[in-house]
Amino acid sequence: MPNQHDILCAITWQNDQLHLLDQRKLPQEHQLMALSSATSVAQAISDMVVRGAPAIGITAAYGVVLASKAAYAADPNHWQTLIETNMQQLAQARPTAVNLVWALQRMRGCFAKISGNPVPSLLEEAQGIQQEDIDANRQMGDLGASLLPSDCQVLTHCNAGALATGGYGTALGVIRSAHAAGKISQVYADETRPWLQGARLTAWELLQDNIPVTLLADGAAAALMQQKRINWIIVGADRITANGDVANKIGTYSLAVLARQHGIKFMVVAPTSTIDMNLESGNQIIIEERAMTEILMIGGQSIAPNGAKAWNPSFDVTPAALVDVIVTEKGVVKPPTTERLATLMK
Ligand code: MRU
């Protein structure tokens, strides 16, 4: 019997279309959205139909396949010029996860070698990116799990699982591998306001794999640590800069500060496609700010008085000094420093 994570796929290419599992509706509804244009792919990324740094990159890569199909049909001799508007649209769909521009650059790297119809080569590349991501997650799962003690109780934030990647997950990949090795006795998951990725997606993924999961309100994490109920925090990342600073879902930084205060270890799990060696440190990362309504309303219902304003940064930056270990598919960086990351990325 395959595990649920082996069949759980947020992104599939079928019948010349991209199919995305609409993550805004999970876990109540399982709706697939079929997309056949790059513009609709960019919109789906902006609207959070698909989310999670590696998943956004993979989706954008398939977006390039759809863009090339339309451009080649319009003018077979100038498809590379015609595709540019779509490349820009895709690049701007969300600003913080570097995997998006990384995947677009990888797709662009194929253009020069293509003669004739670009779709078969670009589709092969996009599928290659997805498969490599799954392989990287498996590798990180083993590496990360080997760092954990037995009878481990962990806290995770947001969703860094199969849904956020090509499959298996980064932070949840480590949790899955550690659970399979008999090391995990309890997973706590922050609900993760305002999109509730922890409550809706992480809890759903873990329950289907029979991994014990307990949800908590984000504000309860401090008390959880004070009561010594966890020994590791394990999260994913949207962008890691050359010095090891980590951008991840809003609330990650407060967890890292709390972890240091309470003597709890802090692990970041991310493929090397999430490492941005072009930025020296985290204060150069563009942090996405989303609509106020995401804070002021829940499920279409206002929860704040008319006229109230809201601040809604989607990510924050955890300084490298608060991170005990970064786990990548190429190896473990412990603790992260500019020198160690440069060696890893050589
Ligand atoms: O806004 P989201 O849901 O795209 O944010 C996702 C996260 O912050 C994840 O932790 C990160 O992308 C890593 S996913 C493997």
UniProtKB/TrEMBL annotation:
Its EC number is 5.3.1.23. Pathway: Amino-acid biosynthesis; L-methionine biosynthesis via salvage pathway; L-methionine from S-methyl-5-thio-alpha-D-ribose 1-phosphate: step 1/6. Gene3D superfamilies: translation initiation factor eif-2b, domain 1, Translation initiation factor eif-2b, domain 2. InterPro entries: IF-2B-related, IF-M1Pi, IF_2B-like_C, Initiation_fac_2B_a/b/d, M1Pi_N, NagB/RpiA_transferase-like. One of its GO terms (biological process) is L-methionine salvage from methylthioadenosine. The active site is at 238 (proton donor). It catalyses: 5-(methylsulfanyl)-alpha-D-ribose 1-phosphate = 5-(methylsulfanyl)-D-ribulose 1-phosphate; 5-deoxy-alpha-D-ribose 1-phosphate = 5-deoxy-D-ribulose 1-phosphate. GO terms for molecular function: S-methyl-5-thioribose-1-phosphate isomerase activity. Keywords: Amino-acid biosynthesis, Isomerase, Methionine biosynthesis. Substrate binds at residues 51-53, 94, 197, 248-249. The record marks 158 as: Transition state stabilizer. Catalyzes the interconversion of methylthioribose-1-phosphate (MTR-1-P) into methylthioribulose-1-phosphate (MTRu-1-P). Also catalyzes the interconversion of 5-deoxyribose 1-phosphate and 5-deoxyribulose 1-phosphate. Part of a bifunctional DHAP-shunt salvage pathway for SAM by-products. Belongs to the EIF-2B alpha/beta/delta subunits family. MtnA subfamily. NCBIfam families: eIF-2B_rel, PRK05720.1, salvage_mtnA. This is Methylthioribose-1-phosphate isomerase. It comes from Candidatus Thiomargarita nelsonii.
